[in-house]
Amino acid sequence: MKRYSAFAIAREALRYHTGWGKAWRSPEPKKSYDVVIVGAGGHGLATAYYLGKNFGITNVAILEKGWLGGGNTGRNTTIIRSNYLQDPSAAIYEKARSLYETMSQDLNMNVMFSPRGVMMLAQTQHEIRGFQRTAQANAFQGVKTEFISPQRIKELVPIMNISGPRYPVLGALWQERAGTGRHDAVAWAYARACSGMGMDIIQKCEVTAVNQSNGVVTGVETTRGTIGCKKLGILVAGNSGDLARMAGFRLPMESVALQALVSEPIKPCLDVVVMANTVHGYISQSDKGEFVIGGGTDMFNNYTQRGSFHHIEETIRALVETFPMISRMKMMRQWGGIVDVTGDRSPIISTTPLGNCFINGGWGTGGFKSIPGSGWAMADMMANGQPGPLCTEFGLDRFAEGRFIDESVAAGVAH
Ligand SMILES: Cc1cc2nc3c(=O)[nH]c(=O)nc-3n(C[C@H](O)[C@H](O)[C@H](O)COP(=O)(O)OP(=O)(O)OC[C@H]3O[C@@H](n4cnc5c(N)ncnc54)[C@H](O)[C@@H]3O)c2cc1C
Question: What is the C-alpha end-to-end distance of the chain, expressed in Å?
């Protein structure tokens, strides 16, 4: 794998850019691997990368039914933050946020991590109390956040109307080192690094069955033939239920569409991420100048990767009081992804009833931010056969034991 550097750009400029190779190989699948990962989204690729980097396990295949990064990883609104209420959540999201800070250097590819700051608006008395509580919890957890006044919000976001008639802005939970990253660059950077370590990324290869013998996984059936493995990792977001069924167990998880939209590009006027949980909308401005806007999930299960039309209207209506300029802007594109939602709105990173089969899912509407931390924890669990400190609390057993990690209210709009 060629190193990307300023010197390489200069050298290629002199020879008309004829020397760039492919970022990753597209090999034919081998008969078997030590580890098979299903799903080449951010979580699958990050797991493979840390298996190689932290544990020297490189006889790995990552199987993807479509194209890598074509699932939710390439469809999200790229918010990265770690201001969660519960201790296990703060630990894994803060680990991920800190890995994002050095990801471009670590993977030798610019993932455009932009720690521009994320604010979650308080627009009711209840939210003021809730966010003050979260700020206090974050202080104990070592996550730097603060509760800021309406005046400070207006200084940070001059285009915001803070004295709306229905929901005036009363304060905000502010995380200065939170921000955004380039979603597909994250997938591409991990893919390139995995391929560089000799791992096989096999696209257009759908897993259709999980093979087992005496309660232990032995491999998978795919649209490109049978592939054997000693360990299997399932990281397929909205398709988690399908893969679990193939492996012979059920998950407490639902698949629903979450959608986002972008406006026409305009001059830079918003350099932080704003989330409004009460009215349910959030907004940031991309490097291209488009407003990136998202809201909540559809209220019914589906697999369409589109989302319903009325949700677009609801999301815009939610934001127009605080950002009146939106009413005069054209919206250019809209898309959806199928997110995997658990009852307590926290992920599952777990061993499973099938031996040597591990699952990572349930990140729902907020799993882009956690990709590096989740991959780190999943690789640790797959290498050692049992959950390590970052994911012990996220096991499947918590649903049987009633040991929920409830982030549904604490995290507000769950992005
Ligand atoms: C509109 C939208 C906005 C979002 N905004 C944010 C945000 O701002 N911040 C944030 O942190 N998170 C956000 N999220 C959530 C985030 O995108 C996801 O939690 C995260 O990307 C999940 O990554 P993943 O690797 O688990 O899944 P994916 O990226 O979906 O990857 C799973 C892969 O598995 C593959 N697969 C499925 N079944 C099979 C099979 N049988 N065989 C082989 N391959 C299979 C799929 O094709 C897919 O590529 C948003 C999501 C959406 C949809």
Answer: 34
221 and 229 in contact (C-beta within 8 Å)?
A: no
75 lines ligand 1 (CB under 6 A): yes
Q: What is the pTM of this model?
A: 0.97
- pLDDT at position 139 is 98
Average pLDDT over residues 96-119: 98
Note the pLDDT tens digit of each residue in 279-321. Answer: 889 999 999 999 999 988 888 888 888 878 888 899 999 999 9
CA distance 370 to 347: 10
Locus of tokens 């549904």: 408
Best of 76, 224, 348 to mutate for ligand 1, by most ligand atoms within 8 A of CB? 76
- Among 233, 230, 231, 249, smallest CA distance to 241 is for 249
Q: What is 400-411 written as a DSSP string? A: HHT-----TTTT
Measured between alpha carbons, how far is 262 from 195 in angstroms, rounded to an integer? 33
Atom 49 (ligand 1) nearest CA: 71
Tokens 């590096």 identify what position? Answer: 372
Q: In angstroms, rounded to a whole number, what is the distance separating the alpha carbons of residues 139 and 260?
A: 32
Task: Find where tokens 């087992």 sit.
Answer: 212
161 close to 323: Cβ distance less than 8 angstroms? yes
Question: Under a CB-based contact definition with an 8 Å cutoff, are residues 362 and 240 in contact?
Answer: yes
Residues 172, 178 contacting (CB under 8 angstroms): no
pLDDT digits (tens, 9 = 90+) for 314-367: 999 999 999 999 999 999 999 999 999 999 999 999 999 999 999 999 999 999
Q: Which residue's CA is the closest to the ligand 1 atom numbered 52?
A: 76
Q: Is the CB of 78 under 6 A from ligand 1?
A: yes
E strands in 31-113: 32-38, 60-63, 79-80
